[in-house]
Amino acid sequence: MKTMPDNSVDLILTDPPYNIAKYSTGNIYLPGREALNNDIAKWDEVEFNPQELVYDFKRILKKDGNIFAFTSYNLIGKWHEAFDKEFDTFQFFVWHKTNPVPKIFKNGFLNSCEMIVCMWNKGHRWNFSNQREMHNFFESPICMSPERLQNPKHPTQKPVKLLKHLISIASNEGDIVFDPFMGTGSTGVAALQLGRKFGGCEIDSVYFEAAQNRLELCHG
Ligand SMILES: C[S@@+](CC[C@H](N)C(=O)[O-])C[C@H]1O[C@@H](n2cnc3c(N)ncnc32)[C@H](O)[C@@H]1O
């Protein structure tokens, strides 16, 4: 990202670490079936501070660009503190997962909602056509087979349907979408399917290769 030119990106749509591993009680192992995944990942344990993204996000984003970033309850305050003063608008959007991991011990709410923080300045690109599309809420199942990669398995692979909704709202065909935490490249797949251009980063070489393979398939 540091090597990218100023004012070069139309939409930053990204899914950085949530730092929730420290609150997790671990995967749930059940006799005779696959363990229930609690989104445990080593990369999630590395301290993540949204403040570290402010300078480069502002620098690479075009003046009429938008930023959407997935996050969690424990980091929402840090996102707001870092970005609210830097942009004209700071809002949040909710993804409601229609098939969340069950709470088999009935000891709390299902984790059926994820938050996406949204930032932009006056004059930003916006493609809402009617009020019904303007709800800051979207329903879709979590990523399942055949979309969900089996090798490598990524614990937080996001559904392309949700990403396409966000990209459609906030960019135009031919625009450049950037995801600096792209995992298996789901944002890129959604962007290319909608006729946008895509650039992304991923620190893990196995996920990076998986993303590259998915993106190459989109190019045909
Ligand atoms: C929440 S996951 C993204 C998953 C992605 N949305 C998908 O659908 O596959 C966050 C990703 O950020 C990567 N990551 C963590 N720190 C990073 C860094 N400093 N630079 C680039 N990628 C990083 C992790 O390896 C992980 O794959």
The CATH class is identified as: Alpha Beta
Number of strands: 7
Rg, Å, rounded: 17 Å
Largest sheet: 7 strands, mixed
Count of discrete alpha- or pi-helical segments spanning 4 or more residues:
5
* SS-based class: alpha/beta
- Helix content range: 10-25%
- Count up the domains: 1
- Proportion of residues in β-strands: 15-25%
Q: What ligand species are in this complex?
A: S-adenosylmethionine
End-to-end span in angstroms? 27 Å
Find the CATH superfamily. Answer: Vaccinia Virus protein VP39
Oligomer: single chain
- The overall pLDDT, averaged over residues, is 94
Overview of this protein structure:
Strands 5-3-4-2-1-6-7 form a 7-stranded mixed sheet, with helices on both faces. The protein has a single domain (9-111, 120-219), classed as Rossmann fold (3-Layer(aba) Sandwich), CATH 3.40.50. With 220 residues, it is of the alpha/beta class. It has 5 helices and 7 strands; from the N terminus they run E-H-E-H-E-E-E-H-E-H-E-H. The model has no long low-confidence stretch (mean pLDDT 94). It is 24% helix and 21% strand. The protein binds S-adenosylmethionine.
Core attributes:
alpha/beta; globular; Rossmann fold; seven-stranded mixed sheet; 220 residues; binds S-adenosylmethionine; 7 strands
Sum this structure up briefly.
The protein has 220 residues and is α/β, with parallel strands linked by helices. It has five helices and seven strands.
